Each structure stands twice: as C-alpha cells, then as structure tokens.
UniProtKB/TrEMBL annotation:
GO terms for molecular function: electron transfer activity; heme binding; iron ion binding. It comes from the Bacteria. This is Photosynthetic reaction center cytochrome c subunit. InterPro entries: Multihaem_cyt_PRC_cyt_su-like, Multihaem_cyt_sf, Photosyn_RC_cyt_c-su. Transmembrane segments: none annotated. It comes from Puia dinghuensis. Keywords: Electron transport, Heme, Iron, Metal-binding, Photosynthesis, Transport. One of its GO terms (biological process) is photosynthesis, light reaction. The reaction center of purple bacteria contains a tightly bound cytochrome molecule which re-reduces the photo oxidized primary electron donor. Gene3D superfamilies: Photosynthetic Reaction Center, subunit C, domain 2 (1.10.468.10). The keyword Glycoprotein does not apply. GO terms for cellular component: plasma membrane light-harvesting complex. The keyword Iron applies.
Length: 136
C-alpha cells in the first residue's frame, strides 16, 4: 500500500510539473509577416536573400538602412514588414524605376537558364554608396 501511495504522489507531482512547464512555456514566434509590394509574393526565401544581399552590396549598407527595428523594445530584431523607414519606399520606387528603364531602353539578355539580365541595376548609380553621386 505504501508503494502505491509513493507511486501516486510521484506521478501526481510529475503531472503537475509537466502542466506547470507547459503553462509558462514561451509562445512560439508567429510566422514572419511579409510586405511585398514590388517583389513577387511567392519569392523563395533563398531568392529574397539574394535580392537583399545584392541591394546591400550595391548601396554599401546593412539591413537596418531600410528596415525599421522591431516595435518590441526587448527584441533586437528588425521588423521586415514595417514601412516605418522612408528608405524602404525609396528602394521600392528605385526598383520600379530601373525596371521601367530596362524595359523601355534596353533589350533584356537571357542567361543560360533564361533569367533576365537587366542592363542597369542599383549598383549602376550607387556604386557602393547609399546616395548616388556621394563619394565614399
């Protein structure tokens, strides 16, 4: 009988411990929100990284140049969906502008896998500087 009581008490304590751990477990991060206005809505994560890396290199900046910090002051992450920084909308405008220029004035060449190779891009004017014409 004593062994049954010990077993019951240990099982009950273990169950309470599991319930307590589940109650204080931090919430899972929600799936990141996207705010694509000029890039394809179905762009893959790898392709998005390639585009962002090309833009960073062309302007000689880091992600926080266009992306605002998270509204959560305890988080040191960027809020990629936020439009709080005007630089993000400027980047969208510039992206559309280069696409219009390429379409109107240049014939698109195709690479081996039939992807368009634009004649001009961010680096054409920026050359590693966040503001064209500015000497780094």
């Amino acid at each position: 009988m004593l062994h049954h009581k010990k077993f019951f008490v240990i099982t009950a304590l273990f169950g309470l411990m599991i319930i307590g751990m589940a109650a204080v477990r931090p919430q899972d991060d929600p799936k990141p929100k996207h705010n694509f206005k000029v890039l394809p809505k179905d762009i893959s994560h790898d392709d998005l990284d390639k585009v962002m890396d090309a833009w960073k290199a062309a302007l000689g900046v880091k992600c926080n140049f266009c992306h605002a910090p998270s509204a959560d002051s305890t988080s040191h992450h960027l809020d990629f969906a936020s439009d709080a920084k005007p630089e993000k909308n400027i980047a969208r405008h510039m992206y559309k502008m280069t696409a219009r220029i390429n379409k109107k004035y240049f014939s698109f060449d195709k690479d081996d896998i039939r992807n368009s190779i634009p004649a001009i891009s961010c680096v054409t004017c920026h050359r590693g500087s966040p503001h064209p014409g500015e000497v780094k």
